[in-house]
Structures are given as structure tokens and as C-alpha cells.
Amino acid sequence: MEPRNAIVTLITGAGSGIGRACALQLARRKHHLVLAGRTESKLADAADEILAFGSGEVMIARADISDPAQARSVVDQTLERFGRVDNLVNAAGVAALAPIEKTTKELLSDTFATNTFGPAYLIAACWPRFRTQKSGCVVNVSSLASQDPFPGFFVYAASKAALDSMTRSVAREGAALGVRTFCVNPGGVETPMLRSLFNEKAIPKNQTLAPEAVATVIVDCIEGRRESDQGKIIVLSNP
Ligand code: NAP
Fold first, then answer.
1. Would the CA dihedral through 29, 44, 63, 82 be positive or negative?
2. What is the spatial distance between Cα 163 and Cα 123, in angstroms, rounded to a whole number?
3. 71-91 pLDDT, tens digit each
4. In this predicted structure, what is the pLDDT of residue 5?
5. How far is the CA of 93 from the centre of ligand 1 (A)?
6. Has 121 been annotated as catalytic?
7. Protein residue closest via CA to atom 39 of ligand 1
8. Which amino acid residue places its CA nearest to atom 21 of ligand 1?
9. Which residue, among 144, 130, 139, 136, has the nearest Cα to 189 in the 3D structure?
């Protein structure tokens, strides 16, 4: 039988970087967690780390969120297992550096499919449940690039700017339903994504944010310490 006050949080991109750091912090707060991502071994590793220090329940949902059926299935599995979803953290994302003249249909569709459409599918799938619960919280992990794009982020920055825009719509429509919505827009964060694009000469370690610092802001949003930032962009600049 579910403890009545168990909080259920679905995190995409939970196998690494910001999503994983967020999962670890929420596990310490005894949330029931759904860890979503494409690579089962990364999710299993994150789940093992969480279960080692004891927490609420942890479920792995292997899914490519750029596929609408798989995104919906993650929400369906969450509801099947826990009967509710309190928080959706959209941390999954992809980034490629490409000069503008190298923009292709594939780059555009792949980037928007994960960074923009995926969160949209997940929010839409959670919405009926949020309405029934009369509560919910969405935290979108966008990027400083949506406002201040690094050269080469022509496509990535646009995909995140669309996510910023969706945050405003969700906040506007969700307010009447009791849904709280936030957008966290960090600069460079020390994660596998950053290091797949930039070496330490280009972006030294002492100029990056720790994924744990970004996760702390996400947790602050979830736990009600950033209420005045609902529907706004929370920029996290580099040190
Ligand atoms: P990361 O460690 O690469 O995490 C991204 C995660 O997303 C990976 O675990 C990846 O796992 C998952 N993912 C990618 N495509 C997916 C898909 N189609 N379906 C499901 N899962 C998918 O990088 P990160 O830096 O923590 O990124 C987290 C978020 O922060 C991203 O949205 C990114 O755009 C944003 N961000 C990062 C930085 C930075 O400097 N690192 C700065 C600003 C914003 P699988 O490959 O196993 O699916």
C-alpha cells in the first residue's frame, strides 16, 4: 500500500548529468522516482546508487522521449506503478555544435524532437492526471543558450527557446489547475554533454557549474522555494 504522502517524480535524462544529480537529491527526500532515458545501463547504475542509501521506490523507464508513443508510455508506466505523478523534470536533451551552413533537416528534426517535442509529449501526457490531482509541477531544463547562444548553437538554442516559450504557456494554462511550472536555464555544466562538445581548454572546469548546483535549483522549484519564478526563465550563469 502506498504511503499517502509519497511524492512521485518523473525525471527524463536521469542516467547522467543534471537529471541524475536531481534524482539523487530527490531520493534523499524519499520521493518515489521514475528514471527515464534511452540507455538502460545508465539508468540501472543511477538506480543502484540511489538504492544504496535507501529512499522511496525507484523505477526505470527506458524510452526515447522524441517518440510520442514512448514518451506517453513513460507516463502510463508511472501512473500504473504509483497511481499519480507530482513532478515532471524534463532534463533529457541533446546538443550538437554545427556551423550555420551545415544545418540539415536531420539536425533540426533530431534536436527539436528531443529538446522540444519530447517535453511537450510528456507534459501533455501528464496533464489529465494533473487536472484530476489539482496539482503538479513541471521543471523544464532549458539553457542559457536560448538567450545567449554560443556560436555553433544555431539549432540547439532555437530548440531551447521553444522550450522557454512552452514553459510560459504551461504556466499560464496550468495556474488554474494548480500546476506550477519553471524553466531552469544554465550556462556550461560539467556533464558528459558539455565535455562531448568542449574540451577543458575551450571551457575550463573552474568556469562550469556543477550538475548538483543545477539540481539544487530544480529541487528548490519543486519544493516551493522559487514560487515567484513560476513561468519565468531562471538563468544560472557560470562562475
Ligand atoms: P547529459 O549528461 O548528456 O544528460 C542528458 C541525458 O538525456 C542523457 O542521460 C541522455 O541519456 C538523455 N537523453 C538524450 N536524448 C534522449 C532521448 N531522446 N530520450 C530520452 N533520454 C534522452 O547532459 P546534461 O548536461 O546533464 O543535460 C541535461 C539537460 O541540461 C539537457 O536538456 C541539456 O540541454 C541541458 N543543459 C546542459 C548544459 C551543459 O553545459 N551540460 C547547459 C545548459 C543546458 P541517453 O543517451 O541514455 O538517452
1. negative
2. 11
3. 999 999 999 999 999 999 999
4. 65
5. 4
6. no
7. 189
8. 37
9. 144
